[in-house]
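Quick log. Single chain, no ligands specified.
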Amino acid sequence: MDLVVSVGANIYRGYDLETVFENLSKMGVRYVDIDFIKTVTGFGKKSELTHLTEEDLGRAEEIKTLMDKYNLESVTFSGHVDLSLKEDVDLFLKKMEFAKALGVKYVSTNAGLLVREKEFFENIDVVEKKARELDVIVCLETEMPGDIIQKGEDGVKVLQKINSPYVKMTYDFGNTYYASRGEVNLVEDFERSLDFIGNLHFKDAILENGTYRYCTIGEGIIEYRKIADVLKKHGRTFPITIEIPYYFESVNWSPFRMTDEKRDLEEINEMVKKSMEFIESILK
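-> predicted structure:
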């Protein structure tokens, strides 16, 4: 597989999709990861965390035309719900159909809370059948404290039980670092998980005076050069999505809060450019 690096639309907080597409196209970006993420209680209005609503799921052709206008493609899609909740499954199935219409192969989501693990395993059968029907791969993301999958080791155990080529893992380095409070060895955990991974989310973070926040890839504490070495050692390539939700912060590992910060397009574009250049430099 050629190197596929997508830019997650979530960095363009507060800007409409056409503005996102136009700016990415001007920078020569080829792939975009559009977000329709279930809003977490307390994180503000839905429009502050996602670029799509449920109504937009019926506009796949229109959105695909807009992407074509700016010469963009989507290989990955951020369609997070809580799959341990039955009421979230139907919405996720619609997101999968929408993603397929855009040409997406990998659809990321949360497995859900560990206290509802039994419900998750009941629900994943329905999701797996839909993935098989659509020929897409559902990727369960390494997520937050209290979730079923917080690190690669957790994901491996879950995926061994599911045992389907249509369900894999999204390894999110920033999430795993935060969920473990920096105690998990990301390089080792990632390497042990390789055979179960579908795609990667590159987040980088700065930890200053007890405050954890996301930053340009390559400028933080995640050891991406060592991650690149693991990929080269094993001859593996996965689709990568750049995610920089700079508006999240955690103080002393408390639950994330969302700040009111909305950055200028020029500053966001610069973060995207630097992240792209860094990733290409370590992987090519």
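The first strand starts at residue 5 and ends at 8.
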